[in-house]
């Protein structure tokens, strides 16, 4: 019955891991997926997560269903981490839901927007993505029934922000558009808005009657400080925006496969919050019924124990610092092997990724000749770079770019 089904391509990011796994080279390096590795190149489980896991096992917790909306205590902790303790927000007006990590939160947001965001001419809402954006964004919103558009963001020449282009595109956007903003550690470019840019974007979003939808998948990875990294979101909230926020705890808690995330929607009243939550439940029930129980319990356990929380914040900072150290070593390594190109952006960009500027052809050579795997757009997951492989990587990058 499915004989006419065309075979589809592998995912642009997760497909890289499949190719890497199949490679027999002892030198192989996976810089595809954004998943943190320690300096030995191994997956890293944070100490407070291990402690929380043991506590949970001792409790012999049950395996019952969570409510469709998820674990309330976890959601309360999650939104407090994002908006801060002193946001001035009336938390009674903030709808929140446990989601299947950041992807699930974005998809739920998309489904909610398609159904209930007041749109013009009966058309679906348009979601504007920065160019470029995370490879999965467009598919998430398209599949949720939204229209997908874009705004200029990255300047290939300066390897920095194209802020003028960004403002112009936002100013010319359809009134009422939804603007997707990466809260920090922009994926894939590592280029973030600074304070004054956030201020200007906030003004334009207000002037155009647009909705700000934040994707915060890397809170902590730009500065090492979770509060500093939430400043864009918090500023929007202070300035009166009714933001929609997708949070992932995959990276900052290292809980990738546990699928821990939260969607929150800031509203004007308790009635609005309750109505939104009621609809989120109606959307989730036929999709996956209710969310998983373990990952959120680990986060809850850590965030309700001051000592564990401090330990977590420290280890989170340590991850950000190790990545920053690798940026410096990679840049120095490239200079050390004699590259005459300017690699300053490797060190300047933020978060887990370096948008290297390597072409698809160079990326292909890296893979075929050196077993170095990265996404075709030249994005390097810096989290996979270690003191052990940085020299090999610098040499390989130099060879394909000279
Ligand atoms: C990435 O961009 O590599 C991560 O967000 C993982 C993913 O799901 O794509």
UniProtKB/TrEMBL annotation:
The keyword Transferase applies. GO terms for molecular function: L-aspartate:2-oxoglutarate aminotransferase activity; pyridoxal phosphate binding. GO terms for cellular component: mitochondrion. Gene3D superfamilies: Aspartate Aminotransferase, domain 1, Type I PLP-dependent aspartate aminotransferase-like (Major domain). PROSITE patterns: AA_TRANSFER_CLASS_1 (PS00105). In eukaryotes there are cytoplasmic, mitochondrial and chloroplastic isozymes. This is Aspartate aminotransferase. It comes from Eucheuma denticulatum. The gene is ast.
């Amino acid at each position: 019955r499915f004989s006419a089904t065309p075979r589809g391509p592998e995912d642009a990011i997760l497909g890289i891991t499949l190719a890497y796994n199949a490679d027999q080279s002892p030198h192989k390096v996976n810089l595809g997926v954004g998943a943190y590795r320690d300096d030995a190149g191994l997956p890293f489980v944070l100490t407070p997560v291990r402690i929380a896991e043991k506590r949970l096992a001792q409790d012999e917790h049950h395996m019952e269903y969570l409510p469709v909306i998820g674990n309330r205590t976890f959601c309360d902790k999650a939104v407090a981490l994002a908006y801060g303790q002193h946001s001035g927000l009336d938390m009674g007006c903030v709808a929140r839901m446990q989601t299947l990590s950041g992807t699930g939160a974005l998809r739920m947001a998309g489904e909610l927007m398609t159904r209930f965001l007041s749109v013009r001419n009966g058309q679906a809402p348009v979601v504007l993505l920065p160019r470029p954006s995370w490879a999965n964004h467009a598919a998430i919103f398209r599949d949720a029934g939204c229209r997908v558009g874009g705004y200029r963001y990255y300047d290939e020449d300066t390897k920095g922000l194209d802020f003028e282009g960004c403002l112009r595109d936002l100013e010319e956007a359809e009134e009422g558009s939804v603007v997707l903003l990466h809260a920090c550690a922009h994926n894939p470019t590592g280029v973030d808005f600074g304070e004054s840019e956030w201020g200007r974007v906030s003004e334009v979003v207000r002037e155009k009657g647009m909705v700000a939808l934040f994707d915060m998948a890397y809170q902590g990875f730009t500065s090492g400080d979770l509060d500093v990294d939430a400043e864009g979101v918090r500023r929007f909230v202070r300035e009166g925006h009714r933001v929609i926020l997708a949070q992932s705890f995959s990276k900052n808690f290292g809980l990738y496969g546990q699928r821990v995330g939260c969607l929150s929607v800031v509203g004007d009243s308790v009635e609005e919050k309750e109505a939104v939550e009621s609809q989120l439940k109606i959307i989730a029930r036929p999709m996956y019924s209710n969310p998983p129980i373990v990952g959120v319990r680990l986060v809850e356990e850590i965030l309700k124990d001051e000592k564990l929380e401090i330990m977590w914040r420290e280890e989170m900072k340590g991850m950000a610092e190790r990545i920053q150290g690798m940026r410096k070593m990679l840049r120095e390594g490239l200079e050390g092997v004699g590259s005459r190109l300017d690699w300053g952006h490797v060190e300047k960009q933020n978060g887990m990724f370096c948008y290297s500027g390597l072409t698809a052809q160079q990326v292909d050579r890296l893979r075929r000749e050196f077993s170095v795997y990265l996404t075709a757009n030249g994005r390097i997951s810096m989290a996979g770079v270690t003191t052990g492989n940085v020299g090999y990587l610098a040499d390989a990058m130099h060879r394909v770019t000279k």
